[in-house]
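Batch job 17 of 40 flagged for manual review because the log was empty.
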Amino acid sequence: MNLQKLLVCRNLLEEEVFGGIADKFEKTARLIEKAERLGLSGNLYRAYLIYLLSHEPNLISTSIEMRGGKIGGNLREVFKHDIEILLPIFRGELLNEINFVNAYKPTVENKNESFDELTRRLENIDDAAEITHIFIEHYKRYGYGDIAIYRAFRWENGLIGVRHFEKFFLSDLIGYAHQKELLTSNTTAFVKGKPANNVLLVGARGTGKSSSVKALVNEYYSQGLRLLQITKPQLKNLPEIMEALRKFLSKRFIIFMDDLSFEESEAEYKYLKSAIEGGVESRPENVLIYATSNRRHLIRETWRDRNEEHDELYRDDSANETISLSDRFGLIIHYYAPTQAEYLEIIRSMLKKQGVELDEENLRLEGLRWEMSHSGRNGRTAQQFVNHYLGQR
């Protein structure tokens, strides 16, 4: 192999494993270290090459992201040219004199969904055109780097992947069929590139509003949906955040704000109003804003606001200012506290998933006794009861 002939994958020239280190034992030691850190298995040269091409940015992966999944015919041929040079590694022909490196088993294997799928698709494939096609489809579906690995992100002067994101699905949320239908239909349209609305989930505490939004990312991850959770103080950074997400046009992002509400004296809500609708720069087409709140209008209202003696000259202007933020959410979904029967059904379903079944009378007595001594009847209270019950068995 002559890696100097690479055109778009020239970052491989800087990799110590493929050319940066002359000493073969030093190179082997570095390769084993990477295998353990990244969870690579099999022929480590091949596994590490697949990892680099899927994780590190190159002209192909970045172009696909910036062009919304499109790639020119010539650029495809250039990528195929590089894959042809790298074919001996894909075929497993690059071997190490330390035999276990050629069929390595790490302490903990890489369990990332996108990387696993890519590795499986490349298994026993030794045709450059087919390998090129598989990588391009991978970039279109999952992206590269952290965008491919993580479902959810937080913002710290850039996207930071959430390593331990809860694997919660909408089917795990008992009841609320109508609310889930509204949420999924809007999100399905969004990931398909059709018109969709920003969403406000409002209602009683502990009813599953936040869990519903988080579940969407698990449902639609393979279709390109990602979640970015931001805090209220970060609202002033929305223009910067929007510009960063605009670079990943082949992916769809939900900017998520949990338990959102404002005092009238707080100015952050004006940043949100501008970002949703009304700013000079348009919101990227690959971004929607989903928020949860216990307040219908997001901004705290008092009876004083409705008092005839209130010193506002134009009281209607004040009222319009209060409700104008929630009006910018095209879809408002209400979550109501469950009935007693629904509350007990939530408990029954949670216990059943743990292999426990209570008879009707004990379920009713224990569940209602717990409800009366806690914060009311909702999904959170049901989960707390289940945790207590299982912990005392």
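Reviewer: the log was empty due to a logging misconfiguration, but the result itself is present. DSSP finds 16 helices and seven strands in the chain. Unflagging and moving on to job 18.
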